[in-house]
Amino acid sequence: MSKQGICYLVGAGPGDLGLVTLKAKECIEKCDVLVYDALSSAELLGWTKKGCELIFAGKRAADHAIPQDQINAIIVEKTLQGKVVTRLKGGDPMIFGRGGEEAAELAEAGVPFEIVPGISSTIAGPAYAGIPVTHRDHCSQLTIFTGHEDPTKEDTSLDFDQLAKTPGTKVFVMGVSRLRGICEQFIKGSASPQTPIALTRWATTGKHQTVQGTLATIADIVEEANFKSPAVAVIGDVVKERQKINWFESRPLFGKRIVVTRTREQAGGLSKRLGELGADVIELPTIRIEHPQDRQDFAESVAESHTYDWLVFTSPNGVERFFDAFYATYQDARSLGGCRIAAIGPSTEAKIREYRFAVDLVPQKFVAEGLIEAFKNESVEHQKILWIKAEETRDVIYDGLMELGAIVDSCLAYRTVPETNDPTGAARQLREEGADMITFTSGSTVESFFNMEIDWPEGCEAACIGPVTHKTFKSHCEASSVESKKHDIEGLVQTILKHYGK
């Protein structure tokens, strides 16, 4: 019996990844085919399972990647093939998202489908701009309409005279290019020219931007600011509340575009922290982690780890690779024996503690030289030390421990290689739009970035963890840069905040 497919019509929310529903995440994670549009957060693509077919069906103004009738045909065809299809649409699929049309096509074809609502930009956009769409002091009614139609054409389905007379807040989307005509029609329909109006573009994301005016002035303000779609507009006295409750745009890194070059698996922590502070974050992984070239030698080193006096970890990647291999060999944590554990930096220490092991030694300075200084206070002469490391690292730890009389073996746990995939188009975005700052968390991220042959953006600065990474950057580029004296992610974030005077 062939497997029966199903199609999920899913709202991806307005852009902020935190506003995606749990049901939407489940649908993305389990689908065989993801059909997504241009308003979806690019990070959502990372939730798909290996082998998922990605189909971009984005629409922006008059530019349609795939016409709507072909989108309908694709989701029907893929579902009839017995596949789990997720049709991912910005905001809510049933609010000016043509989700109703797609659902009708699926129903007519007799294939199972579900509708998964999402948070609409018509509500979330104003909220992030500090504008409540309803407020007991201003209104108790909300009208939502599309600005996509030309308000001056004779056969428009919108009655602007009626809209102008309707009490309460009016919200519309897809109307930036027709804004002047819409405002003129409202005034013609007896709305006061002094009625407040605000427009927010790329609402809830790091590119969030708001302009404010009146029906009489907003068109000129938008043109002067070169304000483009996608945007949501709010008309009414509720716009006045923005002066008091504009919370999102007051965050310390708001308006700064910052690039994160860590691996895809590790980028999330730094990206989330910068995003929480208001930055527009571009994740551009320049490296990825792969198995060591000699996997047999690595496995044997891990299997013999209980024979050592010390285990030395210098990165979370090494910790993860080591313990994955350890538990593939041993079922009992006690098989590690009585060896002591040293770690460079709080991130590495935290990763070790995830495996329920205590850390005996953490240097004050989170660099190789700092670790050697810390070991000078330990009696390691004639003791066996296993250094778990990447294939391409400096020999400072090996040389330093040998000078202290230790017997040192290297355990090559992983290697870093240049990242060649760019599924979210981050490299193209950086080339076209530039950035305010690019962050580097290791020398390998620096080397791989410059190997990508991306011209350093004009006016862009760099933020580097520690002196080694900073030195590597300076060997490639003379652009303005800052160095985190505390060599961890939070230290880097605080350095960036201090640099921008916040």
> What count of structural domains?
4
CATH architecture of the largest domain: 3-Layer(aba) Sandwich
Question: Helix proportion of residues, in percent?
Answer: 25-40%
The total count of helices amounts to: 18
User: Helices and strands: which structural class?
Assistant: alpha/beta
User: Would you identify the regions where 5 or more consecutive residues have pLDDT less than 50?
Assistant: none
The overall average pLDDT, rounded, is 91
Distance between the termini: 62 Å
Radius of gyration: 28 Å
Could you characterize the architecture of this molecule?
It is a single chain. The protein has 4 domains: 6-118, Tetrapyrrole methylase, N-terminal domain (Cobalt-precorrin-4 Transmethylase, domain 1, 3-Layer(aba) Sandwich), CATH 3.40.1010.10; 123-249, Methyltransferase, Cobalt-precorrin-4 Transmethylase, Domain 2; 257-286 and 419-499, 3-Layer(aba) Sandwich (Rossmann fold), CATH 3.40.50; 290-417, Rossmann fold. The protein has 18 helices and 22 strands. Helix 11 packs parallel to helix 12, helix 13 runs parallel beside helix 14 (396-403) and helix 16 (443-451) packs parallel to helix 17. Helix 14 (396-403) links the parallel strand 18 (384-390) and strand 19 (407-418). It has 502 residues and is an alpha/beta fold. The model has no long low-confidence stretch (mean pLDDT 91).
